[in-house]
Specification:
single chain, about 100 residues, 2 domains, about 10% strand, globular
């Protein structure tokens, strides 16, 4: 089985002990990590995804409270999950082959 490549930013969640423990396992050894520089958000496809969610999916949304905002964000994310072409475009925009 071939190794999987994962591109990640410097988020603290990536440095938790559970992640370190997984990377030490047999499965974890099949993962190639490519860390993004902290000062280069233009290389992070997640930034394009968030931009799309905020500006397109939820652009004219006004919520009365945080609970409704949370529900709308989940709905928008689920809709985006089915728009593979948008997700691929976010990766291509950063220079990654899809």
């Amino acid at each position: 089985m071939e190794a999987k490549q994962i591109i990640w930013d410097g988020s603290p969640i990536h440095r938790v002990e559970e992640m370190k423990a997984f990377l030490r396992t047999k499965m974890g050894k099949r993962v190639h990590l490519e860390q993004l520089p902290g000062d280069a958000p233009d290389l992070n496809p997640d930034e394009s995804v968030w931009h799309y969610l905020k500006q397109v999916q939820m652009g004219n949304l006004c919520c009365r409270d945080l609970d409704l905002l949370s529900q709308e964000l989940i709905r928008a994310r689920e809709q985006l999950h089915h728009k593979r072409h948008i997700l691929e475009a976010c990766s291509r925009q950063c220079g990654y082959l899809v």
